[in-house]
């Protein structure tokens, strides 16, 4: 055996494959399994978007675009966020198209972090954030939001800043939130923005990939109130059911975008030209493609919330995304991984252990309702049976 394993990048040795993916693969082979595990829309990409992609292929639109992406796409995105979220970005200099929101996040963090920089992350959090910070030679600092029904408060930010001082380079915000589905109203967004303004040397990376999946009210972008410090992350995976197409965006002031673009260009050159062409169609003629999906998700959310609340799960009712994040009732297995694995074996239901979203998620489970209503109803019947059969003795 060679000694090459001793020579790997120290940062890559600190990170692991996502526990979400690990657990999903662990239970995938169980017969008759209903997997409410991954955050992937069960709807097809809208037909008009698919046809645009086919047209691009047939017309040999198969060459590199500019590094930042096709200007028609960036203009369409600028119009989309202006109409939807009342925020203005120059498509020439302030919008970058990326290979999914994941690459947008990665390029942004690699573009701003220096070794030892700290990044504040409200917890529970999407599992991608911590390893990306680590790969950028930064250090993740977690803000526990569990005692406030997963709502990040200005006081929490101020306390973290007081403790970690001038080493804080950025804060990653995500709303509607994965895994909790919690989102913020206008007053809460303003309060967060006003708090971060007190720290002008701190970047706000605002992951708004679920912006089109808000059930009551509408999404308020942090860019509207904190333009100069904010890098908005968005994409078409959730709004247009295009997870596999891989198209994301960064939206930020020119001086920030210029630095992110350098990383992006050296990582991927540019996003797929075919996908960009389909993205133009999605953004121009599919501005409301998420509406029917959103209506269906809301029905699924309401069903799951009612059933699981009746079974004793404590849930902060989600107002966005397509996740339920539920506290395991007392008397049942409290280790989230063990609970979910026992549930998978006995009831043939796949939930994700809450610990996959950080230590603050221990004792919780996350389930995605991006599955058909028939599967969800069957899963809830199986869960009801499981909870009754495994109820603690009184």
TrEMBL record:
Cofactor(s) of this protein:
pyridoxal 5'-phosphate
CDD domains tied to this protein: AAT_like
EC number(s) of the enzyme? 2.6.1.-
- Please give a single GO biological process term from the UniProt record: amino acid metabolic process
Q: Does the keyword ATP-binding apply?
A: no
Any single GO molecular-function term of the entry would be:
pyridoxal phosphate binding
This protein's record includes keyword Chloroplast:
no
EC class: transferase
Q: Which residues form the Aminotransferase class I/classII large domain?
A: 32-383
Q: Which family does it belong to?
A: Belongs to the class-I pyridoxal-phosphate-dependent aminotransferase family.
Q: What name does the UniProt record give this protein?
A: Aminotransferase
Origin species: Marinilactibacillus psychrotolerans
């Amino acid at each position: 055996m060679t000694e090459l394993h001793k020579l790997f990048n120290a940062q890559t040795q600190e990170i692991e494959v996502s526990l979400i993916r690990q657990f999903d693969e662990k239970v995938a082979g169980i017969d008759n399994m209903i997997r409410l595990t991954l955050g992937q829309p069960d709807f097809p990409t809208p037909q008009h978007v698919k046809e645009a992609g086919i047209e691009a292929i047939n017309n040999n639109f198969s060459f590199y675009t500019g590094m930042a992406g096709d200007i028609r796409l960036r203009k369409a995105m600028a119009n989309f966020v202006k109409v939807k979220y009342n925020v203005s970005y120059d498509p020439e200099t302030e919008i970058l198209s990326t290979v999914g929101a994941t690459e947008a996040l990665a390029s942004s963090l690699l573009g701003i972090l220096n070794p030892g920089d700290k990044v504040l992350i409200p917890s529970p959090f999407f599992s991608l954030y911590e390893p990306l910070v680590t790969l950028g030679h930064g250090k993740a600092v977690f803000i526990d939001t569990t005692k406030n029904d997963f709502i990040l408060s200005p006081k929490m930010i101020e306390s973290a800043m007081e403790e970690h001082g001038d080493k804080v380079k950025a804060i990653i915000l995500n709303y509607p939130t994965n895994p909790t589905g919690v989102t913020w109203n206008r007053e809460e967004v303003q309060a967060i923005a006003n708090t971060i303004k007190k720290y002008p040397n701190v970047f706000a990376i605002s992951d708004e990939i679920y912006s089109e999946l808000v059930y009551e009210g509408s999404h308020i972008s942090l860019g509207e109130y904190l333009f100069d410090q904010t890098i908005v992350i968005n994409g078409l995976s959730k709004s247009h059911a295009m997870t596999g197409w891989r198209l994301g965006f960064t939206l930020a002031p020119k001086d920030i975008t210029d630095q992110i673009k350098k990383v992006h260009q050296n990582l991927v050159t540019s996003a797929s030209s075919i996908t960009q062409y389909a993205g133009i169609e999605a953004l121009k003629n599919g501005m409301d493609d998420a509406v029917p999906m959103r209506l269906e998700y809301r029905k699924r959310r309401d069903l799951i919330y009612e059933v699981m609340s009746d079974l004793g799960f404590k849930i902060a009712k989600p107002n966005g995304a397509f996740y339920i994040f539920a506290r395991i009732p007392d008397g049942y297995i409290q280790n989230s991984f063990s609970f979910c694995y026992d549930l998978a074996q006995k009831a043939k239901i796949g939930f994700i252990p809450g610990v996959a979203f950080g230590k603050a998620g221990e004792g919780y489970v996350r389930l995605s309702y991006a599955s058909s209503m028939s599967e969800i109803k069957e899963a809830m019947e199986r869960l009801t049976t499981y909870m009754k059969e495994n109820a603690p003795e009184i």
